[in-house]
Amino acid sequence: MKKKKKLKKRKWIYINHPTSYDIRCDKCWDGEINRTGTNIDWSEYEGRIWCYDCKEDRIGFIGIFDGPIAVGACELLGCSLKRYYFKSKKIMKPVANKKGKVVYRQCSQEELKENKCLYRMSR
User: Fold this and answer.
1) Is 122 exposed, middle or buried (0-12, 13-18, 19+ CB in 10 A)?
2) Both ends of the chain: CA-CA distance in Å?
3) Could you read off the pLDDT of 21-78 as tens digits, one per residue?
4) How far lies 11's CA from each of 42, 46, 65, 86, in Å?
5) Looking at residue 63, what DSSP letter applies?
6) 3 state DSSP class of 92
7) Inter-residue contact 41 to 4 (CB < 8 Å)
8) Where in the sequence is the domain holding 86, given as residue range(s)?
9) Is 4 within a domain?
10) Taking a C-beta distance cutoff of 8 angstroms, is the pair 84, 15 a contact?
11) Which neighbouring-strand residues pair with 101?
12) C-beta atoms surrounding 91 within 10 Å
């Protein structure tokens, strides 16, 4: 019998709903471009989504995260890669440092006012 791996609690979520990133439930999605597998939300555990139909934490299909992502293009399309951190209650945005590595920095109040896709905060 396989020993269950203990899941780590999530420290942050992306500010958009999982379906904004084309994430679907891996159990109930039928593979077609329709609404199946979309009754989901971010799970309390890292690397998981909660499926309301299956009533369980699922790995899900990873959507746009299966390849390189053009951050600027995502933002233009309304698909933000900003993160909400639970402990600090701050929204962080991805930026490139001098070495070209992506790091996260806190959003300014001005940036937060113009961002209209704060999924978690508007629920």
Assistant:
1) exposed
2) 41
3) 889 999 998 777 777 888 999 999 999 999 999 999 999 998 888 877 777 778 777 7
4) 11, 8, 19, 6
5) G
6) strand
7) no
8) 80-122
9) no
10) yes
11) none
12) 22
- Lookup: tokens for 88: 């600090």
**48 assigned to some structural domain:** no
Q: What is the pLDDT of residue 65?
A: 84
Is 108 within the bounds of a domain?
yes
111, two tokens: 């940036």
Pick from 55, 57, 62, 56: which is nearest to 24 by CA?
Answer: 62
Vertex 121, ends 49 and 14: CA angle to 5°? 40
107 found inside a domain: yes
Predicted TM-score (pTM) of this structure:
0.78
Q: For position 59, what pLDDT does the model report?
A: 92
Extract the tokens encoding 29: 């999605």
The span from the CA of 24 to the CA of 60, in Å, is 6
Number of structural domains (the chain) is: 1
